[in-house]
Protein backbone atom coordinates (compact mmCIF):
# COMPACT_ATOMS: atom_id res chain seq x y z
CA UNK A 1 0.00 0.00 0.00
CA UNK A 2 2.87 2.37 0.80
CA UNK A 3 4.23 2.10 -2.69
CA UNK A 4 0.77 2.86 -4.04
CA UNK A 5 0.56 6.02 -1.94
CA UNK A 6 4.04 7.06 -2.99
CA UNK A 7 3.31 6.48 -6.68
CA UNK A 8 0.03 8.36 -6.42
CA UNK A 9 1.81 11.37 -4.87
CA UNK A 10 4.36 11.41 -7.70
CA UNK A 11 1.53 11.14 -10.22
CA UNK A 12 -0.23 14.15 -8.60
CA UNK A 13 2.96 16.18 -8.81
CA UNK A 14 3.60 15.28 -12.43
CA UNK A 15 0.04 16.22 -13.38
CA UNK A 16 0.37 19.53 -11.49
CA UNK A 17 3.61 20.27 -13.33
CA UNK A 18 2.45 19.28 -16.80
CA UNK A 19 -1.26 20.12 -16.98
CA UNK A 20 -3.44 23.11 -16.24
CA UNK A 21 -4.92 22.10 -12.88
CA UNK A 22 -6.29 25.49 -11.93
CA UNK A 23 -10.00 26.16 -11.84
CA UNK A 24 -11.41 28.74 -14.24
CA UNK A 25 -13.11 30.36 -11.27
CA UNK A 26 -11.42 33.42 -9.81
CA UNK A 27 -10.40 33.55 -6.14
CA UNK A 28 -12.76 36.50 -5.56
CA UNK A 29 -10.08 39.07 -4.71
CA UNK A 30 -10.89 41.01 -7.90
CA UNK A 31 -14.01 42.13 -6.00
CA UNK A 32 -11.97 43.61 -3.15
CA UNK A 33 -10.69 47.13 -3.82
CA UNK A 34 -8.16 48.69 -1.48
CA UNK A 35 -8.65 52.43 -1.23
CA UNK A 36 -5.68 54.24 -2.76
CA UNK A 37 -4.20 56.81 -0.37
CA UNK A 38 -1.62 59.58 -0.39
CA UNK A 39 1.10 58.00 1.75
CA UNK A 40 2.40 59.82 4.78
CA UNK A 41 5.13 57.22 5.29
CA UNK A 42 8.51 56.24 3.85
CA UNK A 43 8.51 53.18 1.56
CA UNK A 44 11.89 52.07 2.89
CA UNK A 45 10.59 51.91 6.45
CA UNK A 46 7.64 49.62 5.67
CA UNK A 47 7.72 46.46 7.79
CA UNK A 48 6.02 43.36 6.32
CA UNK A 49 6.87 41.08 9.26
CA UNK A 50 4.32 39.50 11.58
CA UNK A 51 4.28 37.41 14.71
CA UNK A 52 3.14 33.98 13.48
CA UNK A 53 2.07 31.76 16.37
CA UNK A 54 4.84 33.29 18.49
CA UNK A 55 7.60 33.44 15.88
CA UNK A 56 8.57 36.54 13.91
CA UNK A 57 8.44 35.87 10.15
CA UNK A 58 9.34 38.11 7.21
CA UNK A 59 5.84 38.40 5.73
CA UNK A 60 2.37 36.86 6.19
CA UNK A 61 2.99 34.21 3.53
CA UNK A 62 3.14 30.44 4.11
CA UNK A 63 4.58 27.90 1.70
CA UNK A 64 1.43 25.75 1.62
CA UNK A 65 1.57 21.94 2.00
CA UNK A 66 2.65 20.13 -1.15
CA UNK A 67 4.47 16.89 -0.66
CA UNK A 68 6.78 14.27 0.84
CA UNK A 69 7.07 10.48 0.78
CA UNK A 70 9.14 9.91 -2.37
CA UNK A 71 12.45 10.95 -3.90
CA UNK A 72 10.91 13.71 -5.95
CA UNK A 73 9.33 14.98 -2.73
CA UNK A 74 12.70 15.01 -1.03
CA UNK A 75 14.10 17.24 -3.76
CA UNK A 76 11.09 19.55 -3.60
CA UNK A 77 11.09 19.74 0.21
CA UNK A 78 14.83 20.41 0.20
CA UNK A 79 14.41 23.38 -2.14
CA UNK A 80 11.40 24.62 -0.20
CA UNK A 81 13.33 24.44 3.08
CA UNK A 82 16.28 26.32 1.57
CA UNK A 83 13.92 29.03 0.33
CA UNK A 84 12.01 29.18 3.63
CA UNK A 85 15.32 29.50 5.48
CA UNK A 86 16.63 32.27 3.26
CA UNK A 87 13.40 34.25 3.52
CA UNK A 88 12.30 33.28 7.05
CA UNK A 89 8.84 32.17 5.92
CA UNK A 90 6.82 29.24 7.35
CA UNK A 91 6.94 25.95 5.47
CA UNK A 92 4.25 23.26 5.53
CA UNK A 93 4.89 19.68 4.43
CA UNK A 94 2.44 17.47 2.54
CA UNK A 95 0.52 14.66 4.22
CA UNK A 96 2.80 12.60 6.47
CA UNK A 97 0.52 9.57 6.49
CA UNK A 98 2.93 7.50 4.40
CA UNK A 99 5.81 8.17 6.82
CA UNK A 100 3.64 7.23 9.80
CA UNK A 101 2.84 3.88 8.18
CA UNK A 102 6.41 3.14 7.10
CA UNK A 103 9.52 4.80 8.58
CA UNK A 104 11.40 4.37 5.28
CA UNK A 105 9.47 7.32 3.92
CA UNK A 106 10.49 9.75 6.65
CA UNK A 107 13.59 11.12 5.00
CA UNK A 108 11.74 13.30 2.48
CA UNK A 109 10.19 15.09 5.46
CA UNK A 110 13.13 15.05 7.87
CA UNK A 111 15.37 16.73 5.27
CA UNK A 112 13.69 20.00 6.22
CA UNK A 113 15.22 20.03 9.69
CA UNK A 114 18.61 19.04 8.31
CA UNK A 115 18.48 22.31 6.41
CA UNK A 116 17.17 24.51 9.19
CA UNK A 117 16.38 24.15 12.89
CA UNK A 118 14.93 27.69 12.95
CA UNK A 119 12.22 27.90 10.30
CA UNK A 120 8.57 27.61 11.32
CA UNK A 121 7.45 24.17 10.12
CA UNK A 122 3.88 22.88 9.88
CA UNK A 123 3.15 19.13 10.06
CA UNK A 124 0.29 17.67 7.98
CA UNK A 125 -2.27 14.89 8.29
CA UNK A 126 -5.68 14.27 6.70
CA UNK A 127 -8.85 14.46 8.77
CA UNK A 128 -9.80 10.90 7.82
CA UNK A 129 -6.51 9.70 9.30
CA UNK A 130 -7.75 10.77 12.73
CA UNK A 131 -9.79 7.53 12.58
CA UNK A 132 -6.78 5.52 11.46
CA UNK A 133 -4.17 6.79 13.94
CA UNK A 134 -4.26 7.31 17.72
CA UNK A 135 -3.13 10.67 19.12
CA UNK A 136 0.36 9.32 19.85
CA UNK A 137 0.83 8.70 16.15
CA UNK A 138 -0.21 12.27 15.31
CA UNK A 139 2.33 13.46 17.88
CA UNK A 140 4.88 11.33 15.99
CA UNK A 141 4.16 13.32 12.81
CA UNK A 142 4.85 16.51 14.75
CA UNK A 143 8.02 15.12 16.34
CA UNK A 144 9.29 13.76 12.99
CA UNK A 145 9.96 17.32 11.82
CA UNK A 146 9.93 19.09 15.17
CA UNK A 147 6.90 20.97 13.87
CA UNK A 148 5.65 24.28 15.27
CA UNK A 149 2.03 23.67 14.22
CA UNK A 150 -0.18 20.96 12.70
CA UNK A 151 -2.33 21.21 9.59
CA UNK A 152 -5.31 18.85 9.42
CA UNK A 153 -6.41 18.81 5.81
CA UNK A 154 -10.04 18.26 4.87
CA UNK A 155 -10.38 17.21 1.22
CA UNK A 156 -13.81 15.63 0.58
CA UNK A 157 -13.90 16.49 -3.14
CA UNK A 158 -10.51 14.89 -3.70
CA UNK A 159 -11.30 11.77 -1.66
CA UNK A 160 -14.65 11.19 -3.36
CA UNK A 161 -13.18 11.46 -6.86
CA UNK A 162 -10.00 9.54 -6.13
CA UNK A 163 -10.38 5.81 -6.85
CA UNK A 164 -8.38 4.96 -3.72
CA UNK A 165 -10.01 7.78 -1.70
CA UNK A 166 -11.41 7.43 1.83
CA UNK A 167 -15.09 8.19 1.31
CA UNK A 168 -16.17 7.80 4.92
CA UNK A 169 -15.99 11.14 6.71
CA UNK A 170 -18.39 10.18 9.48
CA UNK A 171 -17.30 11.09 13.00
CA UNK A 172 -13.97 12.56 11.85
CA UNK A 173 -14.69 16.03 13.25
CA UNK A 174 -15.28 14.60 16.73
CA UNK A 175 -11.80 13.11 16.59
CA UNK A 176 -10.33 16.62 16.67
CA UNK A 177 -11.42 16.76 20.34
CA UNK A 178 -8.80 14.09 21.11
CA UNK A 179 -5.99 16.34 19.87
CA UNK A 180 -6.27 18.86 22.72
CA UNK A 181 -3.17 17.42 24.40
CA UNK A 182 -0.90 18.11 21.42
CA UNK A 183 1.76 20.71 22.11
CA UNK A 184 1.30 22.77 18.93
CA UNK A 185 -1.51 24.89 17.43
CA UNK A 186 -3.97 23.00 15.20
CA UNK A 187 -4.92 24.55 11.87
CA UNK A 188 -7.76 22.96 9.91
CA UNK A 189 -7.35 23.33 6.17
CA UNK A 190 -9.17 22.66 2.89
CA UNK A 191 -7.20 21.92 -0.28
CA UNK A 192 -8.82 24.23 -2.85
CA UNK A 193 -12.58 24.26 -2.27
CA UNK A 194 -12.94 26.51 0.80
CA UNK A 195 -15.01 26.38 3.99
CA UNK A 196 -18.39 27.96 4.74
CA UNK A 197 -19.38 29.69 7.97
CA UNK A 198 -21.46 26.76 9.22
CA UNK A 199 -18.41 24.49 9.17
CA UNK A 200 -16.11 27.21 10.53
CA UNK A 201 -18.37 27.36 13.62
CA UNK A 202 -18.15 23.59 14.03
CA UNK A 203 -14.34 23.71 13.82
CA UNK A 204 -14.30 26.39 16.52
CA UNK A 205 -16.49 24.21 18.75
CA UNK A 206 -14.01 21.38 18.34
CA UNK A 207 -11.22 23.59 19.59
CA UNK A 208 -8.96 24.19 16.57
CA UNK A 209 -6.70 27.24 16.78
CA UNK A 210 -6.98 28.44 13.21
CA UNK A 211 -8.59 27.81 9.83
CA UNK A 212 -6.81 27.86 6.47
CA UNK A 213 -9.64 28.27 3.98
CA UNK A 214 -7.67 26.98 0.93
CA UNK A 215 -10.57 28.16 -1.16
CA UNK A 216 -11.63 28.04 -4.81
CA UNK A 217 -9.51 30.03 -7.25
CA UNK A 218 -6.34 28.03 -7.80
CA UNK A 219 -5.42 24.35 -7.80
CA UNK A 220 -8.52 22.17 -7.99
CA UNK A 221 -8.25 18.46 -7.25
CA UNK A 222 -11.27 17.63 -9.40
CA UNK A 223 -9.08 18.64 -12.33
CA UNK A 224 -6.06 16.74 -11.00
CA UNK A 225 -8.15 13.58 -10.55
CA UNK A 226 -9.71 14.08 -13.98
CA UNK A 227 -6.26 13.81 -15.53
CA UNK A 228 -5.64 10.59 -13.57
CA UNK A 229 -8.97 8.93 -14.31
CA UNK A 230 -10.16 10.67 -17.51
CA UNK A 231 -13.77 10.58 -16.35
CA UNK A 232 -15.89 13.25 -17.99
CA UNK A 233 -18.38 13.31 -15.13
CA UNK A 234 -15.70 15.04 -13.01
CA UNK A 235 -15.89 18.15 -15.22
CA UNK A 236 -18.91 19.48 -13.31
CA UNK A 237 -16.65 19.89 -10.28
CA UNK A 238 -13.90 21.92 -11.95
CA UNK A 239 -15.40 25.12 -10.49
CA UNK A 240 -16.86 23.59 -7.32
CA UNK A 241 -16.35 25.27 -3.99
CA UNK A 242 -16.27 28.60 -2.19
CA UNK A 243 -14.01 31.33 -3.53
CA UNK A 244 -11.08 32.13 -1.27
CA UNK A 245 -12.10 35.74 -0.59
CA UNK A 246 -15.67 34.65 0.23
CA UNK A 247 -14.55 31.77 2.42
CA UNK A 248 -12.15 34.06 4.30
CA UNK A 249 -14.97 36.48 5.10
CA UNK A 250 -17.40 33.68 6.09
CA UNK A 251 -14.86 32.18 8.52
CA UNK A 252 -14.01 35.61 9.96
CA UNK A 253 -17.66 36.46 10.49
CA UNK A 254 -18.54 33.10 12.03
CA UNK A 255 -15.64 32.61 14.45
CA UNK A 256 -13.02 34.31 16.56
CA UNK A 257 -10.34 32.04 15.13
CA UNK A 258 -7.27 33.09 13.19
CA UNK A 259 -8.06 32.64 9.50
CA UNK A 260 -5.45 32.00 6.82
CA UNK A 261 -6.34 32.84 3.21
CA UNK A 262 -5.03 30.49 0.54
CA UNK A 263 -6.25 28.97 -2.71
CA UNK A 264 -5.27 30.78 -5.90
CA UNK A 265 -3.18 33.44 -4.15
CA UNK A 266 -0.57 34.35 -6.74
CA UNK A 267 0.71 37.86 -6.01
CA UNK A 268 1.37 40.40 -3.28
CA UNK A 269 -1.65 42.54 -4.08
CA UNK A 270 -3.90 39.57 -3.28
CA UNK A 271 -1.92 39.05 -0.08
CA UNK A 272 -2.53 42.70 0.85
CA UNK A 273 -6.26 42.40 0.13
CA UNK A 274 -6.54 39.24 2.24
CA UNK A 275 -4.76 40.92 5.15
CA UNK A 276 -6.93 44.04 4.86
CA UNK A 277 -10.02 41.79 5.03
CA UNK A 278 -8.69 40.30 8.27
CA UNK A 279 -6.59 37.27 7.30
CA UNK A 280 -3.94 36.22 9.81
CA UNK A 281 -1.67 35.17 6.94
CA UNK A 282 -1.86 33.77 3.41
CA UNK A 283 -0.55 30.64 1.66
CA UNK A 284 0.64 29.69 -1.84
CA UNK A 285 1.20 26.18 -3.29
CA UNK A 286 1.11 25.56 -7.07
CA UNK A 287 3.39 28.37 -8.38
CA UNK A 288 5.92 27.45 -5.69
CA UNK A 289 5.82 23.74 -6.59
CA UNK A 290 6.50 24.59 -10.23
CA UNK A 291 9.63 26.53 -9.24
CA UNK A 292 10.84 24.23 -6.45
CA UNK A 293 11.22 21.42 -8.95
CA UNK A 294 14.04 23.48 -10.52
CA UNK A 295 15.81 25.31 -7.71
CA UNK A 296 15.38 27.08 -4.41
CA UNK A 297 16.70 30.28 -6.03
CA UNK A 298 13.66 30.36 -8.33
CA UNK A 299 11.35 30.03 -5.33
CA UNK A 300 13.18 32.81 -3.49
CA UNK A 301 12.99 35.10 -6.53
CA UNK A 302 9.25 34.56 -6.92
CA UNK A 303 8.48 35.05 -3.23
CA UNK A 304 10.66 38.17 -3.06
CA UNK A 305 8.55 39.57 -5.90
CA UNK A 306 5.33 38.75 -4.02
CA UNK A 307 6.67 40.47 -0.89
CA UNK A 308 7.71 43.50 -2.94
CA UNK A 309 4.19 43.73 -4.39
CA UNK A 310 2.79 43.50 -0.86
CA UNK A 311 5.10 46.30 0.24
CA UNK A 312 4.05 48.52 -2.68
CA UNK A 313 0.38 47.89 -1.84
CA UNK A 314 1.17 48.79 1.78
CA UNK A 315 2.77 52.06 0.64
CA UNK A 316 -0.28 52.91 -1.45
CA UNK A 317 -2.65 52.23 1.45
CA UNK A 318 -0.49 54.26 3.83
CA UNK A 319 0.30 51.20 5.94
CA UNK A 320 3.65 51.22 7.76
CA UNK A 321 3.19 47.67 9.00
CA UNK A 322 0.81 44.72 8.75
CA UNK A 323 -1.27 45.96 11.70
CA UNK A 324 -1.93 49.19 9.80
CA UNK A 325 -2.72 47.24 6.62
CA UNK A 326 -5.38 45.39 8.63
CA UNK A 327 -7.04 48.80 9.12
CA UNK A 328 -6.86 49.85 5.46
CA UNK A 329 -10.18 50.86 4.00
CA UNK A 330 -11.68 48.72 1.28
CA UNK A 331 -14.73 48.15 -0.87
CA UNK A 332 -16.40 44.80 -1.49
CA UNK A 333 -18.23 44.62 -4.81
CA UNK A 334 -19.58 42.27 -7.45
CA UNK A 335 -19.98 38.54 -6.88
CA UNK A 336 -18.44 38.61 -3.40
CA UNK A 337 -20.83 41.36 -2.27
CA UNK A 338 -23.83 39.53 -3.72
CA UNK A 339 -22.79 36.27 -2.09
CA UNK A 340 -22.38 37.90 1.33
CA UNK A 341 -25.76 39.63 1.04
CA UNK A 342 -27.44 36.34 0.14
CA UNK A 343 -25.80 34.84 3.22
CA UNK A 344 -27.15 37.70 5.40
CA UNK A 345 -23.71 39.16 6.12
CA UNK A 346 -23.71 42.95 6.45
CA UNK A 347 -21.16 43.78 3.72
CA UNK A 348 -20.69 47.47 4.55
CA UNK A 349 -20.32 46.78 8.23
CA UNK A 350 -17.80 44.04 7.55
CA UNK A 351 -15.76 46.24 5.18
CA UNK A 352 -15.71 49.08 7.70
CA UNK A 353 -15.39 47.13 10.90
CA UNK A 354 -11.80 48.27 11.26
CA UNK A 355 -11.86 52.03 10.78
CA UNK A 356 -8.84 54.23 10.16
C1 LIG B 1 0.80 18.51 -5.81
C2 LIG B 1 0.01 19.02 -4.64
C3 LIG B 1 -0.07 18.25 -3.49
C4 LIG B 1 -0.77 18.70 -2.38
N1 LIG B 1 -0.79 17.94 -1.23
C5 LIG B 1 -1.35 18.44 -0.11
C6 LIG B 1 -1.26 17.74 1.12
O1 LIG B 1 -0.66 16.66 1.21
N2 LIG B 1 -1.85 18.28 2.22
C7 LIG B 1 -2.52 19.49 2.16
O2 LIG B 1 -2.99 19.97 3.19
N3 LIG B 1 -2.63 20.16 0.99
C8 LIG B 1 -2.06 19.67 -0.13
N4 LIG B 1 -2.15 20.38 -1.31
C9 LIG B 1 -3.05 21.55 -1.38
C10 LIG B 1 -2.31 22.88 -1.25
O3 LIG B 1 -1.70 22.99 0.03
C11 LIG B 1 -3.27 24.07 -1.46
O4 LIG B 1 -4.25 24.08 -0.45
C12 LIG B 1 -3.97 24.04 -2.81
O5 LIG B 1 -3.08 23.62 -3.80
C13 LIG B 1 -4.55 25.40 -3.18
O6 LIG B 1 -3.55 26.39 -3.23
P1 LIG B 1 -2.89 26.91 -4.61
O7 LIG B 1 -4.02 27.38 -5.46
O8 LIG B 1 -1.95 28.00 -4.21
O9 LIG B 1 -2.18 25.74 -5.24
C14 LIG B 1 -1.44 19.95 -2.43
C15 LIG B 1 -1.34 20.73 -3.60
C16 LIG B 1 -0.63 20.29 -4.69
C17 LIG B 1 -0.54 21.17 -5.91
Précis, in short:
The protein is of the alpha/beta class and 356 residues long. It has helices at residues 2-18, 71-87, 97-101, 107-115, 129-132, 135-144, 156-161, 172-175, 197-205, 221-229, 244-254, 268-277, 286-292, 296-316, 322-326, 334-342, 347-352, and strands spanning 32-34, 50-52, 55-57, 61-63, 91-92, 121-126, 149-153, 186-189, 210-212, 258-262, 281-284, 330-332. The strands form three sheets. It has an eight-stranded parallel β-sheet with strand order 4-11-10-9-8-7-6-5. It has a two-stranded antiparallel sheet with strand order 1-12.
Write the layout of secondary structure elements.
Blueprint: H1 2-18, E1 32-34, E2 50-52, E3 55-57, E4 61-63, H2 71-87, E5 91-92, H3 97-101, H4 107-115, E6 121-126, H5 129-132, H6 135-144, E7 149-153, H7 156-161, H8 172-175, E8 186-189, H9 197-205, E9 210-212, H10 221-229, H11 244-254, E10 258-262, H12 268-277, E11 281-284, H13 286-292, H14 296-316, H15 322-326, E12 330-332, H16 334-342, H17 347-352
Parallel strand pairs: 4-11, 5-6, 6-7, 7-8, 8-9, 9-10, 10-11
Antiparallel strand pairs: 1-12, 2-3
Helix pairs in contact: 1-10, 2-4, 2-14, 9-11, 12-14, 13-14
Bound molecules: flavin mononucleotide.
Residues 12-13, 16, 64-67, 94-95, 124, 151, 153, 189, 191-192, 214, 218-219, 262-265, 284-286, 289 line the site of flavin mononucleotide (FMN).
Amino acid sequence: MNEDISLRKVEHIKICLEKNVETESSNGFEDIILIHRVPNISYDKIDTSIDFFGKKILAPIIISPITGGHELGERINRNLALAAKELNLPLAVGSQRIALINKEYRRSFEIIREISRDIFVIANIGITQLKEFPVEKIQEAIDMIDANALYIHVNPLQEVLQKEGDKDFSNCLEKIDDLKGLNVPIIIKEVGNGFCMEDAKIFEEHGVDAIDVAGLGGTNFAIVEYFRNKRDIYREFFNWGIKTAVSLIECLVATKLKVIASGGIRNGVEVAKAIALGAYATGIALPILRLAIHSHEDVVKYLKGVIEQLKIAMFLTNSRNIEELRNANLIIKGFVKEWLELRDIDVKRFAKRRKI
